[in-house]
Amino acid sequence: MRNIIAGTAGHIDHGKTALVRALTGIDTDRLPEEKRRGISIELGFAHLELPGGLCIGFVDVPGHERFVRTMLAGSTGIDLVLLVVAADESIKPQTREHFEICRLLGIPRGLVALTKADLVEPEILELVRLEIEEFVAGSFLAGAPVVAVSAVSGQGLGELKAALARVAAEVPVKDASRHFRLPVDRVFSMRGFGTVVTGTLVSGRVRLEDEVELQPGGRRFRVRGIQVYNQPVAEAVAGQRTALNLAGAEIKELARGVSLVAPGLFSPARVFDAEFELLASARPLKDRAPVHLHAGTAGVIAEARLLDRATSLAPGERGLVRFHLREPALVLPGDRFIVRMFSPVVTIGGGAVIEIDPPERLRRAEAAERLRRLAASEPGGRLALWVKEAPYGLTLPELIARTGLTPAEIDAAGRSGAFVRIEGPPARMIDRAVFDRLRERIEATVERFHQEQPLAAGMPREALRAEALPASEPSLLEALLEASARLVAEGDTVRLAEHRLVLNQEDEEALARIESAFERAALAAPRAEEVLAGSGVEAGRARKLLEILLRQGRLVRVGNELIVHACALEALRQLLAGRRGERFTVSQFKDWTGISRKYAVPLLEYLDRARLTRREGDWRVVL
What we know:
Layout: E1 2-10, H1 16-24, H2 32-37, E2 44-50, E3 54-60, H3 68-74, E4 80-86, H4 93-104, E5 110-115, H5 122-136, E6 146-148, H6 157-169, E7 181-183, E8 186-190, E9 194-200, E10 205-207, E11 211-215, E12 220-228, E13 231-232, E14 235-237, E15 241-247, E16 259-261, E17 269-278, E18 285-286, E19 289-295, E20 298-306, E21 312-313, E22 318-329, E23 336-341, E24 347-356, H7 364-375, H8 379-389, E25 394-395, H9 396-403, H10 407-414, E26 419-422, E27 428-431, H11 432-452, E28 459-460, H12 461-468, H13 474-483, E29 487-490, E30 493-496, H14 505-521, H15 528-533, H16 539-551, E31 555-559, E32 562-565, H17 566-577, E33 583-584, H18 586-593, H19 597-609, E34 613-616, E35 619-622
Parallel strand pairs: 1-3, 1-4, 4-5, 5-6
Antiparallel strand pairs: 2-3, 7-16, 8-9, 9-15, 10-14, 11-12, 11-16, 12-13, 12-15, 17-22, 17-24, 18-21, 19-20, 19-23, 20-22, 23-24, 25-27, 26-27, 28-30, 29-30, 31-32, 33-35, 34-35
């Protein structure tokens, strides 16, 4: 079954709800006030199954100008519009406003229902048809079917259903493999079930027991139940009117305008850049003008900042605009939006999101030029620019949050050769030129380290990352080291491949004095500070010489305060080898080695760690 969403549009009392009822048998006016006043106040929903496995879900919107905000909330996810014009009144103000809204939202197709056809003479009906054709000329409805109907007599309903089927057949199948997004247009509570939300599933899919995330807010809920067109299902997919019963959700934390999304992917934005079209009927849009902005089912107050105009955008012009939102809203690149004047509240324009949370430190001219490049680029080109601008590239979660692309689409863009993919964790895309500059940076940092500390074997990894790649992930340093032919990683240190330890004569003599002092002391090792003080060189340099002896294995650090010459330890191993399996005490060990308890205890602990001995209470066993 293919699912298509059709939205009604048109002036108040032109028969939208009556037409939907005549087509589907479902009355979308559910509120007592709607029944009493005979007008739609809230969104209404119905569906119609047509031959050939086609199901059209109708979103019936209010026509009264006071409820245009509600109409905008219902326009999310619409595949085609059913523009309703009453034959006895022809085109009216809300006809024009709804039509402009549909055009600005980029709804690509639709048809026109010429309602109340039974109330006028054929000549009047034909005249109104000509007015409609002139009205939609040059728009997305140019050449669309115009069907005369009567919800009362049934005139033209069969023809309208056939026209709906033809137009709906042109709608591309929605991709259910994309990320789950459900802008919420209705929230209510059902006795015995709890909180229920409804909306048009604009992308992805959702299954029973899935976890979904509320944005803005970040709260997560379990999907306890799903209905599509009032029927329980195990899964809903993109393009369906969907109701979700959410476990653990309180009705007070949900409202029209929020979105349910796949967990951990998206964050709401407070700023976004866009291509914007100001209607020819609007007043000039001044820089920093307050406006009402509608995106998805959300409506927020925003400030419009012109990027490519000095003071104002003229009626009928297109421009680049940055919108600062008073409250965060979930938008992604490519999303369409509508802007209404702050006062009086009338529709003045709309556009498409290019970038969310753009860099704000650029001068206006630079920001405009950058945005023009983004606007002219395909998704892969935009991704390339965003990755290039990031100091260490962008992680896969960051790319998804910023672009709305799937991992497969991001991977495909990454195969261009312009990126280096680092597996992480987390997986990261980095511009190849940036990657090469970072590699050169760590090489230069290690080279400088060798110049400043020629006696050090290499630079500690963490010190290298902190100096050359501050606030980066360890996986980035590892990838850069692997790509560098100049650097060698040895344990916790990194050195230049050509780095060799070369000592001058003074250092050689000091090194020999230090080693000799420990060798003469055997297991009764002297205090390191005393040995270094007598080395003949300054303390810092003597400490580095000591570290050289430790790295080379000529000295061994047995404990925090105990360093022993390797020859003494080898002699001790030989002594123990002749006593394999023998049990002994600390006192006996002191007798064997001729050392005091001060040295015996840390030596025995070292032997335990080296698995040459094993402690058993107050005894030890030679292994």
